[in-house]
Design brief:
single chain, mainly beta, about 0% helix
Length: about 110
């Protein structure tokens, strides 16, 4: 007779990631560790809106991690990112703030 082992999701991350300051036009990486069984599903949002993947925004999620990468950061990337993990046993969330510093302006001269 075997009892199934299960565990609610648990999200951990290096505290240096929260509040990081990224120069406009720069690269921002937001990694988190995710534990739980069965494997949790992971979602991300920015300022309480679903995170839109696309140009410059990628998310890689594996068995025990999820990494958000932002390339060519502009003001629209600044704010609070929420990582949510959910499985049949429970949920966990982490809120991580990213600050974009300065302006990234392209000027054309004629």
């Amino acid at each position: 007779f075997e009892l199934p082992i299960s565990a609610a999701p648990n999200i951990t991350y290096d505290k240096k990631v929260d509040g990081q300051k990224v120069k406009a036009g720069g690269l921002c990486i937001v990694p988190v560790n995710i534990a739980g069984y069965p494997q949790p599903s992971v979602t991300r949002s920015l300022n309480n809106r679903p995170l839109e993947r696309g140009t410059g925004v990628t998310v890689e999620t594996g068995l025990d991690f999820s990494t958000l990468t932002l390339k060519g950061c502009s003001g629209k990337y600044g704010g609070t990112y929420t990582v949510a993990a959910k499985n049949d046993v429970g949920t966990d969330e982490a809120n991580i703030t990213v600050n974009i510093m300065g302006q990234f302006i392209i000027a054309f001269r004629s």
